[in-house]
C-alpha cells in the first residue's frame, strides 16, 4: 500500500507542476503578444517620428516646451490674451545648482510676453557673482528664441552705475543677491538716521515711501507684482523682503528644464487670482 501511495503522490505532484506550467504559459502569452505588437508599432512609426523631428527627439528627451521655436510668435499673443500682466516679475531660485541656460530662457520669455521689469535672485548669490555669464546666455537665448525680432526685445542690464544702463529699452533686468535684501534695509535705515542727525530729516518723516526711496537695490524698479519661486524650499530666502509684502508668489518645482507652457501657466494663474491688497 505504501508503494502505491508513493506512486499516487508522485503522479499528483507531476500533475500540479504541469498545471502550474500551463498557467504561466497562459499568463505570458498576452504579454508576449503585446510586446510583439509594441515592437511592430515602433518599427512602423519610428521612421515617421524621426522624419517629423518631434520636439525632444534631438535633445536627449527634453520636454516639448523646451523647443526653441514658436516663442517669437506666441509670446506677444499670449501676453495680450492674459487678463492682467505683471509689470515686475521676480525669478527666485532656491535650488543649490542654478542653471544659466534655463534662467536665461525665463528672462527672454518674460521679454517676449511684454513684462517690463525682471529680477533674478538666488540665495547663494551665484547669478550675481557670475553676472557676465548670465548676460551672455541671455543674449544668446534672445537671438535663438526671438530670432530676427530680437531688436524689438532689447533688455537693459541695470546696475548700480547709471552710466552702465541702456536707455529706451523694453525690458529691464536686475540680478540680485541676499545683500540686496535685509542688508539694504539696514543701510537705508542708517542713511535715514544720518539725515536726521544732520537735521535734513526728522524722525516723523519716516514712512513707507521714504524708506522705499532710500533702498538702493531696486532704485527705479516698481515692487514685484509676481514672484516665481523655483525649488522645494517653502521660502523666498531673503528676496527683497520690504518689497514683496503685496506680491503674489507662485511656487514651481524647479527652474531646470522648465517649459514655456509651465511658465505661461504660472502667468495665467496670476492673471486669474484676486488680489485683496491686504484687505
Q: What's the alpha carbon Rg, rounded to whole Å?
A: 30 Å
| Dominant shape | elongated
Total tally of structural domains: 2
Strand order of the largest sheet: 3-4-2-1-5-6
Write the CATH fold name of the largest domain.
Undecaprenyl pyrophosphate synthetase
Major sheet details: 6 strands, parallel
CATH superfamily of the largest domain: Decaprenyl diphosphate synthase-like
| Counted beta strands | 6
Mean pLDDT: 74
Between the first and last Cα atoms, what is the distance in angstroms? Answer: 94 Å
Highest-level CATH class of the largest domain: Alpha Beta
| Percent of residues in helices | 40-55%
Q: Number of helical runs?
A: 8
> SSE order, as H and E?
HHEHEHHEEHHEEH
Low-confidence stretches: 26-35, 37-68, 160-169
Q: Helix/strand-derived class?
A: alpha/beta
Beta-strand content bin: 5-15%
CATH architecture annotation of the largest domain: 3-Layer(aba) Sandwich
Could you walk me through the main structural features you see in this protein, from its secondary elements to its overall organization?
This protein has a six-stranded parallel sheet. With 279 residues, the chain is of the alpha/beta class. Helix content is 47%, strand content 11%. It is built from eight helices and six strands. Helix 2 (71-81) packs across helix 3 (100-113) and helix 3 packs across helix 5.
Amino acid at each position: 500500500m505504501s508503494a502505491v501511495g508513493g506512486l499516487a503522490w508522485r503522479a499528483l505532484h507531476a500533475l500540479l507542476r504541469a498545471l502550474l506550467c500551463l498557467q504561466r504559459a497562459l499568463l505570458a502569452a498576452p504579454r508576449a503578444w503585446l510586446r510583439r505588437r509594441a515592437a511592430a508599432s515602433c518599427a512602423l512609426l519610428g521612421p515617421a517620428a524621426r522624419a517629423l523631428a518631434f520636439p525632444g527627439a534631438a535633445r536627449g528627451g527634453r520636454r516639448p516646451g523646451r523647443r526653441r521655436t514658436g516663442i517669437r510668435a506666441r509670446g506677444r499673443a499670449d501676453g495680450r490674451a492674459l487678463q492682467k500682466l505683471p509689470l515686475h516679475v521676480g525669478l527666485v531660485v532656491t535650488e543649490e545648482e542654478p542653471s544659466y541656460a534655463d534662467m536665461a530662457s525665463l528672462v527672454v520669455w518674460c521679454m517676449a510676453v511684454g513684462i517690463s521689469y525682471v529680477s533674478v535672485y538666488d540665495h547663494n548669490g551665484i547669478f550675481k557673482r557670475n553676472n557676465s555669464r548670465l548676460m551672455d546666455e541671455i543674449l544668446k537665448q534672445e537671438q535663438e528664441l526671438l530670432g530676427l525680432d530680437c531688436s524689438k526685445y532689447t533688455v537693459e542690464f541695470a546696475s548700480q552705475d547709471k552710466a552702465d544702463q541702456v536707455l529706451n529699452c523694453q525690458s529691464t533686468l536686475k540680478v540680485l543677491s541676499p545683500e540686496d535684501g535685509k542688508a539694504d534695509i539696514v543701510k537705508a535705515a542708517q542713511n535715514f538716521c544720518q539725515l536726521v542727525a544732520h537735521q535734513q530729516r526728522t524722525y516723523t518723516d519716516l514712512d513707507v515711501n521714504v524708506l522705499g526711496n532710500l533702498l538702493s537695490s531696486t532704485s527705479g524698479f516698481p515692487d514685484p507684482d509676481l514672484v516665481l519661486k523655483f525649488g522645494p524650499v517653502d521660502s523666498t530666502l531673503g528676496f527683497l523682503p520690504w518689497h514683496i509684502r503685496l506680491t503674489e508668489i507662485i511656487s514651481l518645482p524647479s527652474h531646470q528644464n522648465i517649459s514655456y507652457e509651465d511658465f505661461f501657466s504660472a502667468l495665467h494663474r496670476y492673471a486669474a487670482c484676486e488680489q485683496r491688497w491686504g484687505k
